[in-house]
Amino acid sequence: MKYMVLLVDGEDWTQMTPEQRASEMAKHAAFDEAVAARADCEILGGEALDEASVTLARTNAAGKIELTDGPFAEATEGIGGYYVVDAPDLDTLAELLEVLPDYVMEIRPVASPGDMVA
């Protein structure tokens, strides 16, 4: 099953020393290695996100997209990055996520194309 893992409310990288950043990045590398070591798991995608720039796209009454600065909802947490991981089940994914730095993580199953047919 595919899962989207949103990395929310992590450490503020701008306040870290280069050594602290390297230590945190090593944890991401360890996660990559842990997933790769399992035949039944795979990282399908993922990126760090720039929290300084957020744009909200919304369809207006005329059906046109309007872009505004975001995020729409005020939140104390920011989404710092994401992974898309193929894992056999949520318990396996949770075990693998333990090697990442401390984040609040939001996990969502990715809908398959068949799930979207009405």
Task: Describe the protein in words.
- The strands form 2 sheets. A 4-stranded antiparallel β-sheet has the order 2-5-1-6, with helices on one face. A two-stranded antiparallel sheet has the order 3-4.
- The protein has a single domain (2-116), classed as 2-Layer Sandwich (Alpha-Beta Plaits).
- The mean pLDDT is 87.
- The chain contains 2 helices and 6 strands.
- The chain is an alpha+beta fold and 118 residues long.
- The longest helix is centred in the first third of the chain and has 19 residues, at 18-36.
Note the topology:
Blueprint: E1 2-8, H1 18-36, E2 42-48, E3 55-59, E4 65-69, E5 79-86, H2 90-97, E6 104-109
Antiparallel strand pairs: 1-5, 1-6, 2-5, 3-4
Termini, distance in Å?
Answer: 21 Å
Number of helical regions: 2
Order of helices and strands: EHEEEEHE
Mean pLDDT: 87
Helix amount, in percent?
10-25%
Q: Which architecture per CATH?
A: 2-Layer Sandwich
Number of strands: 6
> The biggest beta sheet, please?
4 strands, antiparallel
Strands in their spatial order, largest beta sheet = 2-5-1-6
Radius of gyration: 17 Å
Give me the secondary-structure category: alpha+beta
Instruction: Write down the domain tally.
Output: 1
The third-level CATH topology is Alpha-Beta Plaits
The fraction of residues in strands falls at 25-35%
Unreliable stretches (pLDDT < 50, length at least 5) are: none
Provide the CATH top-level class: Alpha Beta
